[in-house]
Amino acid sequence: MTASSRTGILGGRFDPIHLGHLETAAVAQRMLALDRVLLIPSRVSPHRGAPARATDRDRLALVTLAASGTVGLSPCQLELESEAPSYTAVTLERLRDQGHRRTQLFFIIGADAFADISTWHDYPAVLDGAHFVVVSRPGHPLADLIEALPDLRARMRPLSHNPERLSLDANAAPVVFLIDAVTPDISSTKIRARVARSEPLIGLVPDNVAAYIRRHRLYMPQGGDTSHLPDTGAELT
Ligand code: ATP
Ligand code: MG
C-alpha cells in the first residue's frame, strides 16, 4: 500500500449482491479515483433485526463471483470472520490497524442507509474513521438527505463533476462526499421476491450470480429445505 493509495469499502448484507451495488462501487471508484474497492458482507446477528435469507457462506460466494469480473474489486471477509456484531466503526478501526490511514479509506454507502447514520454504533465518532461517500439511490435523492441531516451539512462535500484525481489533504479531517448518480433501481428485496416467483433476473445481477442462486436454490419459497420441490428448470438468468 503506497502512502497515497485509496481504498473504498462497500458493506452490506448482499442478500444477494446485485448490479445496483456494483454500479454504486463503480461510480465511487471513478469519482474518487479509488485504487480498489472491498466488498464486505456483514455478519447478520440473529439478535439484530431480520436474519439474512442466505447463509454467510452463500452471500460471500455471491460477492466473490460478482467481484471476479472487475479489476480493483475484491471480496473481504473481515466482518464474517468476527464473532462481534458488524459495526462499521469497528471494521474501520480494524482496517486502520492493518495500516490504512483514515484519509485513505472511503466508506461507500447508499443515501437510504446513510439517512439512518445517527442511529449507528459510535455515532458521530464513526464519521471520523474514514471518508464517507454517499451515493444517491432511486427514491433517495441527496437533497432529502441534506435536509434531514443539518448537523452534518458542514462536513458534506458534493462531487458534481468527474475529477481527474481529486487532491485531498491527507492530514485534514475526513469528510462526507455526496455523489448524485443514476444507479439502477434494484434491491435485494426485489430480487428475492422475483426468485420466489420464478421470475428471471436478467439485468439485475451478474450472470454468474444468477446461476449460483439457481444452482443452490437460494431464496425459494419456505426458505430452508427445498429438496421436496420439483426442479422446474425455471430459467432465472
Ligand atoms: P435489501 O433490499 O435487502 O435492504 P439492498 O438492495 O438495500 O438490500 P443492502 O445490502 O442493504 O442492499 O445495501 C448495501 C449498501 O448498498 C447500502 O449502503 C445501500 O444503500 C447500497 N445500495 C444498494 N443498492 C443500491 C442502489 N441501487 N443504488 C445505490 N446504493 C445502493
Ligand atoms: Mg438495504
Helix vs. strand class: alpha/beta
Mean pLDDT: 89
Number of strands: 7
Give a list of the ligands. adenosine-5'-triphosphate, magnesium ion
Terminal CA distance: 38 Å
The radius of gyration computed from the alpha-carbon positions, rounded to a whole number of angstroms, is: 18 Å
Low-confidence stretches: 223-237
Written as H for each helix and E for each strand, in order along the chain, the element string is: EHEHEHHEHEHEEHH
Major sheet summary line = 7 strands, parallel
Please give the order of strands in the largest beta sheet: 3-2-1-4-5-7-6
The DSSP helix count reads 8
Strand content: 5-15%
Secondary structure: helix percent: 25-40%
Envelope shape: globular
Q: Can you describe this structure?
A:
This protein is an alpha/beta fold and 237 residues long. The protein has 8 helices and 7 strands. It has helices spanning 19-31, 56-67, 78-81, 88-97, 111-114, 142-148, 188-196, 207-215, and strands spanning 7-12, 36-41, 73-75, 105-110, 131-135, 156-159, 176-179. It has a 7-stranded parallel β-sheet with strand order 3-2-1-4-5-7-6, with helices on both faces. α1 links the parallel β1 (7-12) and β2 (36-41). α2 (56-67) runs antiparallel to α8 (207-215). Mean pLDDT is 89; it is low at 223-237. Residues 12-15, 20-21, 24, 109-110, 112-113, 135, 137, 183-184, 186-189 line the site of adenosine-5'-triphosphate.
Which key terms come to mind for this protein?
seven-stranded parallel β-sheet, about 240 residues, disordered C terminus, alpha/beta, binds adenosine-5'-triphosphate, globular
